[in-house]
Amino acid sequence: MHRITAIAALLASTVVHAEAARVDQFKWLAGCWGFDTDNGRYEEMWSAPTGNNIVGVSRRIADGFTREFEFMRIVTSGGGFDYIALPQGENEVRFNSIVADGTRAVFENPDNAFPSRISYEFVPPDALNARIEGQSNGQTMRLNFPMKRRPCP
């Protein structure tokens, strides 16, 4: 009986380590990113991948005030990854990964009108191209966020 318990514990620890290794592929996303436009300054900050997730926050600052913000997480889920967004800190929206290859990640939720797709692509040494796309008022809409690595506040 002790042998079965030991094997079960070993298998459980192997699963935890496998999840941690998988989420580690998002280490290129960790840090602070941003860009400036006429509509304000956009910032994204991502934690280092730990355990089975990486946590982020984004905001748009204009005229000295935070005008928009969002909490985000990328978590391991069913052999892939989920991107979980809480826009304005409200209802959670979940997107499933369709691409996660070491410098690029694409997440989709066809049931969410806008955005229905979120993508990130790391361009070495210090650029991050983010995009959200979907349908808004019957029109296809795409917003690009061409960010550069910045010092963290």
From TrEMBL:
InterPro entries listed in its UniProt record: DUF6265
Keywords (A to Z) from UniProt: Signal
DUF6265 domain segment(s): 27-133
Signal peptide: 1-18
Name this polypeptide is given: DUF6265 domain-containing protein
Organism the protein comes from: Fontimonas thermophila
